[in-house]
Amino acid sequence: MTPCIWITGLSASGKSTFAQALKEKLDKQSVSSYILDGDELRKGLCSDLSLTPEDRSENIRRMAHVAKIVSNTGTIPICAIISPYINDRENARKLFEESNFIEIYLSTKIEVCAARDPKGLYMKAKQGKIKGMTGIDAPYEAPINPELTFDTAIEELDEMVNQLLEVLLRKKQLSTNTNAGALNHIL
């Protein structure tokens, strides 16, 4: 089983960008990985779910189980999803051996996220056009003890990815099905 990379943070904190940069770096060294993006899951597998707390929890449960399936194939699942509740992230962690779940918290301030706002969600929430926006009128419970924390407004993307890769190497969390030795050359 490969490690599960779980990237959490507010909308527009940089989760998808971080996931893509990580995947590109792994691809260059033939390390198999797959991005599970919360926005994409909402369009398909989770399209029946709303933004109620119960449905958000179900959304996370589904992603975690898909990540487990991906991990069991020898591919590293890179999960980029808001996942606003601590309990849901802990339940996802329980599907993996403790050392095989790497939680990355993008702690980017809401003001920065709202200024980025590529989907216009913060503006719509401010105008009252959408309800249940995480960080606005729905809670986001910051991780208590994530493996890594980054503020994407301050830190360089490449450096953040390299720090994660160093953690993976140090903990020897890449399965024998991946080209783990190649990671030494991309750091």
Automatic annotation (TrEMBL):
Domain of life: Bacteria
Pfam families membership: APS_kinase (PF01583)
Annotated EC: 2.7.1.25
CDD domains recorded: APSK
Entry's Gene Ontology cellular component terms: cytoplasm
Gene3D superfamilies: P-loop containing nucleotide triphosphate hydrolases
Pathway: Sulfur metabolism; hydrogen sulfide biosynthesis; sulfite from sulfate: step 2/3
Residue positions binding ATP: 9-16
Family membership: Belongs to the APS kinase family.
Name recorded for this polypeptide: Adenylyl-sulfate kinase
